[in-house]
Amino acid sequence: MSDLKTPAVDTTDTPVDNTKIAQQEEKPKPCCVCKPEKEERDKCLLFNTDDSDSSLSSCEEYIQKYKACMKGYGFEV
């Protein structure tokens, strides 16, 4: 029988950053956070559809609250 040797794997070239892995596991999904803010924003945009520009300006407060909430969880909207 032939003597096959398995090459040694050098793990020193690929360090594992456990903090990044932990942060990724702890980060919630975007659909699961800021639900009240999202609901207020969506209601405003849905029911103020007279003119697209005016509905955006009248809903700006809700849009900014939602963006601030999402940013708090690390999401860029």
TrEMBL record:
Residues that coordinate or bind Cu cation: 31-32
Major site of localization recorded for this protein: mitochondrion
UniProt signal peptide: none
Biased composition (Low complexity): 1-19
Region (Disordered) location: 1-22
Gene3D superfamilies in alphabetical order: CytochromE C oxidase copper chaperone
GO BP annotation list: copper ion transport; mitochondrial respiratory chain complex IV assembly
Keywords on record: Chaperone, Copper, Disulfide bond, Metal-binding, Mitochondrion
Domain of life: Eukaryota
Example of a GO cellular component annotation carried by this entry: cytosol
Protein name as annotated: Cytochrome c oxidase copper chaperone COX17
Localization (cell): Mitochondrion intermembrane space
UniProt cross-references to InterPro entries, sorted A to Z: Cys_alpha_HP_mot_SF, Cyt_c_oxidase_Cu-chaperone
MF-aspect GO terms: copper chaperone activity; cuprous ion binding
Family the entry assigns: Belongs to the COX17 family.
Keyword Mitochondrion included in the entry's annotation: yes
